Amino acid sequence: SKQWYQRRVRGRFAKFGGDVIVTDRTGETLEISREQTSGKDVLLRDLTSCTVHIPGVLGTLHCTNCVRCAFTVGPITGSLFLEGCSESEFRVTCQQARIHTTHNATFHIHVTSKAIIEDCTGLRFGERGRDGGYEGYGEDLERSGLGKVNNWSEVDDFNWLSKEPSPNWTTL
User: pLDDT by residue (tens digit) across 37-85?
Assistant: First the structure.
């Protein structure tokens, strides 16, 4: 059941330590510096109505239970993992995007593999602009090595096996 799945997810992420952890924030603007996140694993959990800026090149990014937030994040050389997020906007560049139990969210994305969604509804995908949403994004993209391939409009929905387009996501 969905309730069991959400409990299982919370338990799994509760064990993730990460190099940089930000939790339990409401209505804040969070600026996390390049020096703090360079090549690191970042965990953002239980954020509500926050604006998050993370320039630089990250290793991985985990976002869990983030609601009504706006994220502008530098290139992620590994994976973006989202669980239980809703009504949020993400400007992200990553090697892989895994999006679970996320609803009514917008992605301006640059992804080198296909984005994967599961148990999601109301997702919108558009291409991340060349300026990336912050000063220095072009240099970060070059440094990350992720700039050549962008499959922003290719999304695999694990809950939709039909050849017809998934009703769970659209392109902008």
Answer: 999 999 999 999 999 999 999 999 999 999 999 999 999 999 999 999 9
- For residue 99, the number of C-alpha atoms closer than 13 Å in the C-beta half-sphere is 31
Q: How far is CA 67 from CA 46, 51, 75, 77, 94, in A?
A: 8, 11, 22, 25, 21
Q: Which stretches of 73-162 are DSSP H helices?
A: 137-144
User: What pTM, to 2 d.p., does this model score?
Assistant: 0.89
Angle at 104 between CA 127 and CA 54, to 5 degrees: 55
d(Cα 78, Cα 67) in Å, to the nearest integer? 23
Entry field: residues in the chain: 172
